[in-house]
User: Fold this.
Amino acid sequence: MEYIENKVFADINVGDNVSLQHTLTSKDIELFAIMSGDVNPAHVDIEFAKNDMFHGVIAHGMWGASLISSLLGTKLPGPGTIYLSQTLNFLHPIRLNDVVTVTVTALEKHEEKHIIEFECKCTTQDGKVAISGVAKVIAPTEKIKRERILMPEINLSQQKNDILTQKLLAMKEKEKPLITAVVHPVDKLSLLGAVAAAEDGIITPILVGPRKKIIDCAANAGIDISKYKIIDTQHSHEAADVAVALAKENKVEALMKGKLHTDELMAAVVNKQTGLRTERRMSHVFAIEIDGYSKPLFLTDAALNLFPTLAEKIDIIQNAIDLFNTLDMGSIPRVAIVSAAETVNQKIPSTLDAAALCKMADRGQISNGILDGPLAFDNAISSESVQVKGIKSNVAGNADIIVVPDIESGNLLYKQMTYVSKMEAAGIVLGATVPIILTSRGSDILSRKASSLLALIYARRKNIK
Assistant:
């Protein structure tokens, strides 16, 4: 059982102090906004905040002040304390994932009414004083010890996270549709996805596959494809070869997977004589909208490379960094190389790879990103987990990109996110001469449209070698 206990006026000396630490999370900001009604976009609107004077979401000033109140009311003096006045100076912003140390120090005692003045400070992990001031309180004169009341756990029900989708839609406005070969679209989902993306001005589809199957599928599903070009092939294998040839001849700007296995499409793409190879290893990146996380999360490689070597992971990471930066996400990407543990263990090869990759980034072999690893998945994205485990990192708790050890772990993580947690994901293959819109055969229409949108912005804003 936990108790809170005060310190009476007579026992408090000038210079006595007490502190607490708290890491600012998006949930803290949301709860304070709900409680106070203060929905200033500087605190709750990521898109707005990244362009304001602080270039990112910051805590409400009074959130920090409330931590001062917490110290005075529960620790020094503690229960029985009566607030009289409080001055506050807001000197520096408190940002998401900042570790805030709050300290109150007794400055003066006034015997007549048992009044004590306390110096109050909120300091961030880099030593900057964010809030300072002086509190004047009446200290208790009788000893009080009470069982700490446990507050109920609050679970916020959030609106669907569509930060990335809205950003891409805004970027799309000035771009021409991406001429896209849709490979073997002979089922309802792949055909609907291509047509929906076309109707939204994202792609101009060329349907490559058996003409009769495509037309029959469209008729059965009630989809009008009369305005779209069809290139007839005998089967899915030929459809893949023809689509790749169109890209090779610069007649299309992207490929979109229809109803065929990934291996079948990629066999044509990676062919050394007729394929779409560059000097980069090809890899797949999912961009996932996660409710409860303050930004989109990029996941690689959960679809293409089975058990990548250290050398292959260099390209996998660089591809993801390049995509992130091409989308102008507003910051240097933080790359978490995840494993089953957050410490190097020679019995877990992926932890050794993670350590080597981080050193390679230090030496410039991987550029334009901040890497850390090995990290377990929880401490890659959870600031609370980072605090509990005492991890010191510029990436932990705030990752933009998750790099998985192999396709097994990546695919399981992706499927859990999308099927169990109902998160939206867009996915493309990078490292070929054109982007490849590669979704699961069971992906819904929104996922296919979002993937097309991702490919459009990447293709228009990135010079692929």
Residues 310-326 form the longest helix (17 residues).
